[in-house]
Write a structure and sequence with these properties.
This protein has 2 domains: 61 residues, no CATH class; 189 residues, no CATH class. It has 7 helices and 11 strands. The strands form 2 sheets. Strands 3, 4, 5, 6, 7, 8, 9, 10 and 11 form a 9-stranded mixed sheet that branches. Strand 4 and strand 5 form a beta hairpin.
C-alpha cells in the first residue's frame, strides 16, 4: 500500500500497477487524497475521522436530527395554537425581558423594545409571519414603479391592544390619504405591506394562555438590539387590490422603484412611529 496527501494521475497509477506486477506483488493499493477522504467518510471509519480531524458524521447527524425534531415540533405547536389567530395581535417577547410588563425609561424602550405587539399573518416555510407596516400605495402600469403613503400605518396596534407602544390612529390624516388614494385608477390602487419573519428554530416557546396585559398568545424568541426585534428577515410587497387582474412587486429596499406620487405630507412616516 502506498498513500499520499495528493491526487495521482492515471499515468502514475498505471506505472505503479505495472511495477507491482513486475515485482510479483499479488495485491496492491494506491491511495491518493480522494481515496482517503472517501474511506474516512464511511460510517465504519467515523472513529478515525473524529480522532484525527475532530469531525464526527454520526454526532453531526444526531445533532441535525435533534435540531430538525425541535423545529418541526415548534412548527406543529405554532399551527395548533395559532391556526385561528391570523390577522390578530400577538405578543412577541424576549426571554431576557425580566422587567415585563413594567417599562422604566420609555424613551429607551421605544428605541429597543424587549417585547412588542404585532399582527400575525400566518406561517411560511421560514417561520411565523408578522405584518409590521401596511400603507395605502400606488403601483404603476409597468409593475415596478410604486409609492406609498407611509405617514399612516394601518396595522399599527391601538392603545387597547398594546399598552406600551400602541396609539390611537389619526383618523383625519387617514381620511385625507384615503380620499387621495380613492381617486387613483383602480388598476393602480395598491397596498404596501412589510412582513417580518421569526424562524421556527428561533422560537423558544409559545404561551397560549397570555396574561392580563395581553390575553393573546405570547411568542418567546431572542431579540436583537434596536427595533429589529426577533425578526431575522423582512419581505416588502406592493400589491394591487384588483380581484381578477392583481399585480404585485417586491422591492428589495425602500428606494427600489419608488417614485414620488403621493403628496410629501403623506409619503414619510412620523418620527415617533418609525
Amino acid at each position: 500500500m502506498f498513500t499520499a496527501a495528493c491526487d495521482f494521475s492515471k499515468k502514475a497509477r498505471d506505472d505503479f500497477a505495472r511495477k507491482c506486477r513486475e515485482m510479483e506483488i499479488g495485491e496492491w493499493y494506491l491511495w491518493g487524497k480522494a481515496e482517503r477522504e472517501d474511506r474516512l467518510f464511511r460510517p465504519e471509519n467515523d472513529h478515525l475521522l473524529f480522532a484525527y480531524f475532530g469531525v464526527s458524521l454520526t454526532i453531526r447527524r444526531r445533532s441535525q436530527r435533534t435540531d430538525l425534531r425541535a423545529r418541526l415540533a415548534m412548527k406543529r405547536k405554532a399551527h395548533r395554537v395559532l391556526k385561528d389567530k391570523s390577522h390578530g395581535s400577538l405578543l412577541l417577547r424576549s426571554p431576557d425581558a425580566e422587567d415585563y410588563p413594567y417599562v422604566g425609561d420609555l424613551a429607551y424602550f421605544k428605541k429597543s423594545p424587549p417585547w412588542i405587539v404585532s399582527s400575525y399573518r400566518g406561517m411560511s416555510h421560514e417561520g411565523l409571519k408578522f405584518c409590521l407596516q401596511r400603507c395605502f400605495a400606488y403601483l404603476s402600469d409597468d409593475g415596478r414603479s410604486w409609492d406609498a403613503a407611509m405617514a399612516v400605518n394601518d396595522v399599527r396596534s391601538s392603545a387597547h391592544d398594546d399598552p406600551w407602544l400602541g396609539e390611537e390612529p389619526n383618523y383625519q390624516q387617514r381620511q385625507s390619504i384615503y380620499e387621495f388614494w380613492n381617486k387613483i385608477p383602480e388598476s393602480n390602487q395598491a397596498w404596501l405591506e412589510v412582513v417580518g419573519i421569526v424562524p421556527f428554530d428561533e422560537i423558544l416557546d409559545i404561551d397560549d394562555l397570555g396574561d392580563e396585559y395581553v390575553q393573546a398568545p405570547h411568542i418567546y424568541a431572542p431579540f436583537a438590539p434596536g427595533k429589529q426585534g426577533p425578526f431575522k428577515s423582512f419581505i416588502a410587497e406592493v400589491e394591487t387590490i384588483g380581484r381578477w387582474d392583481r399585480r404585485s412587486f417586491n422591492p428589495s429596499e425602500v428606494s427600489d422603484g419608488r417614485i414620488e406620487y403621493f403628496p410629501a405630507a403623506f409619503r414619510e412616516p412620523r418620527e415617533d412611529t418609525q
